[in-house]
């Protein structure tokens, strides 16, 4: 791995980890308890686009470790839920990006990632508390995934459009 690439990925990982932790501290005035904006997923989308799926998966894993460590939830149920959401959404977005873009843009891929992120997290929550009844909550989270996925995707697209060309170092 080239030094420049490694430094950029490390910086983006740090940003994602801090966003992950800070987002847990933000109160959201929404009718869906537990819903989050997915701010760290902006970084995941940027890394996926710039550096490919391997780097995006690495950043996702490290941001969950860093974010839950900073948030005081390392290795607890919140860690398992965040890890499952990050891994599954990154894999799905990485698989969908070359196949569905076009007709979908990075924004559509982001909405897809937000939805599967919620599905993975709810499945882990249902397993952790041994209650499949928690899955009734999933449709509400999926409704929230659409606007947050749109916001995340639009922000990532805007960020990528403003980057200088030398940052376009995408590798699989």
From TrEMBL:
The keyword Membrane applies. It holds the Pfam family Hpre_diP_synt_I. Keywords: Membrane, Transmembrane, Transmembrane helix. The chain crosses the membrane at residues 79-97, 104-128, 134-156. It comes from the Bacteria. This is Heptaprenyl diphosphate synthase. It comes from Sporolituus thermophilus DSM 23256.
């Amino acid at each position: 791995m080239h030094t420049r690439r490694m430094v950029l990925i490390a910086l983006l990982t740090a940003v994602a980890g801090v966003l992950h932790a800070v987002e847990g501290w933000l109160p959201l005035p929404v009718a869906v308890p537990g819903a989050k904006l997915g701010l760290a997923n902006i970084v995941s989308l940027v890394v996926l686009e710039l550096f490919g799926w391997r780097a995006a998966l690495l950043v996702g894993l490290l941001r969950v470790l860093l974010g839950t460590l900073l948030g005081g939830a390392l290795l607890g149920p919140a860690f398992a839920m965040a890890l499952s959401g990050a891994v599954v959404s990154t894999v799905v977005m990485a698989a969908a990006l070359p196949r569905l873009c076009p007709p979908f843009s990075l924004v559509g891929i982001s909405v897809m990632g937000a939805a599967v992120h919620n599905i993975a997290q709810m499945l882990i929550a249902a397993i952790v508390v041994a209650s499949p009844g928690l899955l009734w909550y999933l449709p509400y989270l999926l409704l929230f995934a659409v606007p947050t996925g749109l916001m995340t995707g639009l922000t990532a697209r805007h960020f990528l459009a403003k980057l200088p060309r030398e940052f376009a170092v995408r590798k699989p």
